[in-house]
Amino acid sequence: MSQNQAEILQRALKREKAARKAAEKILEEKSRELYLTSQKLEQLLDEKSSQLEGVFENIVDAYVVMDIQGDFIKFNEAATKLFGYDISRDEVNVVDLVYKEDYVYAVSSFMELQTKGYFKNYEARVYTKSKEVKWVHINASMIFDKDKKPVAAQGIVRDITHQKASEEKLIESENRLASLVVNLDSGIVLEDENRNIVLTNNKFCELFNINAKPKDLVGLDCKAASEQNKVLFKNPDAFLERMRAIDTEKKVVLGDELEMVDGKILERNYTPIKIGEKSKGYLWTFTDVTLKRTYRKSLEAQKQKYYNIIANMNLGMMELDNNDQILMVNHSFEKMSGYTEAEVIGKNARALFASEEDSEILKVERQKRKEGASSSYEFKAICKKGKTRHWLVSGAPNYNIDGEIIGSIGIHLDVTETKNLELQKEKLLEKLEKSNDELQEYAHIVSHDLKSPLRSIHALVSWLKEDNQGKLDAVSLQNFGLIETTLEKMEQLITDVLNYSSVGADTSSKTEVDLNSLVNELVSILYIPDHIEIKSLHVLPNIHGDRTKLQQVFQNLISNSVKFIDKKCGSIIIDVEDLKSHYKFSIKDNGIGIEKKYHDKIFKIFHSLKKSKDSSGIGLSIVKKIINLHEGEIWLDSEPNVGTTFYFTLKK
Amino acid sequence: MVKKLKILLIEDDMIEVMKLNRTISTLKLDHKIIEANNGEEALEILEQKDNLPDIILLDLNMPKINGIEFLSILKSDDVLKYIPTIILTTSNNQKDLLECYKIGVAGYVLKPLKYEDYVSKIEKLLAYWSINELIVV
């Protein structure tokens, strides 16, 4: 081996050594680098896995892992707490946890897990160990090995029982609110920024005659709809214009009134709804106020009507407060009193109108009003020019809404004329009574004065006869007899006239009169010739009347019949018929009869048809007068030569 | 025992006076008639307290003081009120009748139309009073 060779070899070795050293150094560096890197990686991995572990172990939600059979192999602390099982001791299968009603849902979700490898947002109920039911939310996924074979499933379970409960409550109250809105008596439209309908209700559809369900309207454009609906309003353009103006302003508008073509009146309110600064839409409400408006209108019409009645009635009206201060008078009262309303308002009514003598009356009436009593009274009022008038007042207390007496209202009628007439009548009556009395007296005096000479003549004739006994011839004696008969007739006439004039004046009291016994008595007292028979067909009733006068009626009529019977066998038939308020009597004879033309005449005084000694022509006049006094009538049926029936009625 | 009566007749009608006188004489009665044509005259007569009548026959319808006024005066006199007073009148007015009895009369006789009836009534009247005991003042 040469030096050179050796040197070469040595040098090569040296180079080799150096290269190896360098390579070693690089390697060393690299391996150190690698070590550092793996060291870092390990650290990172540790970090990550502990991080992950911490996530699973420490997450608030439950984390579970189960094998393919559904047996749980891992529960984190939250899961243990949630389900109540201690996985290290209890064997728990997923089936144990599924709430029976949610079973189908659970199975389908499990299928999803197997096919898709995961499921999300599973919400169902589960049983805990203590058979408590809980709502849970689960996201789950499959775990695969390196050969992509599923080995387990993991899931994150969140207890949403409380959330669910409050959600339910929320839904419930939302439903309640919704049904409230749907059935609200006002029409409601909630629209969004773009004027699309968010919510509306039945009443709205009803008010605008929309033949659709409220929910079908959601999403509709209000603007377009209102253009369509404008025809429903009396003034369509104004409706639109106003709506646009409101929409532009976007401020609360309350109490707009809309008149619809069909007569409805709607009240419209507009409210922007804001939560914080954020607009949540705009709420329109429509309320049918037709009734309210028409009610108010008719109320006003009524008020106007009564106001007109009060203003125009021909009765004076005055309203007073509790201190007799005048609050109001109507036009008629102004006319009656002579004062204008302005002159009397605030004045004391009593001080102003009461005459001195009648002030007390008003005081008493005032007291009655305070006690809540109404009454009518008359008083002498002093009018503006000092004239005295008689007023008839109907006064009533005036109440406020709370039922407290706040004064009185009086309706006044001027009865001065009537009052004067009344006074006049009273005077006349008094006068009449007096002159009746005087007439009565007069009749008595006249009859006395007329009878006295008759008596004297009679006495003188008697004395002539006595003093000339035996000296007078038969004719003279007969003439003296005629004088005496004439005197008797004259006296009878005077007596009858006096009786006739007494019938009306004599106010002897009426009593219950038994006509049956009265007539029987009469028949036994009166002179009835043997050939005349008197019959009563029915028992005569009792009558409220004047016994003496009623007797006179029957006496005169029966005597008349007796007097005028010309037949061999006379018959007088007395009968009675019960009418409603009266009795109708009849006295029928078979006498000479009376010609029709005299039927009215015979009841007139001094109309005797047959001049005779015992008929003065006053009898039937007296009968008629007495019957009239008993509120009855008298008339007759008669046929000459056949007979006469007198009918008369007497009040029961 | 039939008493002889002193009768005061107060009557304005001459013939009525004649009728009473004639009746008494026809009946042959021994009564004494004192005549007064009116109330005033009668009161004058009644002044003589020692010559008062036993009975008074009084007509109601008289001028000046009428019968009822006269009766009232009479009845208010302490002495004269004891003299029986019989009304002799034409008036059958119930008012007069009541008034007279109220003031106090001893009888009320209506004058009849017929003279014979008059005689008969007077006869009875006087017969009655002539058997009565009367107060002598």
Keywords:
heterodimer, A: 652 residues, alpha+beta, Beta-Lactamase, 6 domains, 5-stranded antiparallel β-sheet, 18 helices, B: 137 residues, alpha/beta, Rossmann fold, 5-stranded parallel β-sheet, 5 helices, 5 strands
What does this protein structure show overall?
The complex is a heterodimer of chains A (652) and B (137). By secondary structure, chain A is α+β, with helices and mostly antiparallel strands. Chain A has 6 domains: 1-58; 59-159, 2-Layer Sandwich (Beta-Lactamase); 167-294, 2-Layer Sandwich (Beta-Lactamase); 313-414, 2-Layer Sandwich (Beta-Lactamase), CATH 3.30.450.20; 421-492, no CATH class; 508-651, Heat Shock Protein 90, CATH 3.30.565.10. Chain A has 18 helices and 22 strands. Chain A has helices at residues 3-58, 77-83, 94-97, 103-116, 161-183, 202-207, 222-229, 236-249, 290-312, 331-337, 341-344, 349-353, 359-370, 416-467, 474-505, 515-525, 547-563, 619-629; strands spanning 62-67, 72-75, 118-127, 133-144, 150-159, 186-191, 197-200, 253-259, 265-275, 278-288, 316-321, 326-329, 375-382, 388-399, 405-414, 511-514, 532-536, 542-545, 570-578, 582-589, 634-639, 643-651. In chain A, helix 16 packs across helix 17. The longest helix of chain A has 56 residues, at 3-58. Chain A is rod-shaped and about 255 Å long. Chain A starts with a helix and ends with a strand. Chain B is α/β, with parallel strands linked by helices. Chain B has one domain (6-104): Rossmann fold, CATH 3.40.50. Helix content of chain B is 42%, strand content 17%. Chain B has 5 helices and 5 strands. Chain B has helices at 14-26, 39-47, 67-75, 94-103, 115-130, and strands spanning 6-10, 32-36, 55-58, 85-89, 107-110. A 5-stranded parallel beta sheet of chain B has the order 2-1-3-4-5. In chain B, strand 1 (6-10), helix 1 and strand 2 form a beta-alpha-beta unit. In chain B, helix 3 (67-75) packs parallel to helix 4 (94-103). Classes of the chains: A alpha+beta (652), B alpha/beta (137).
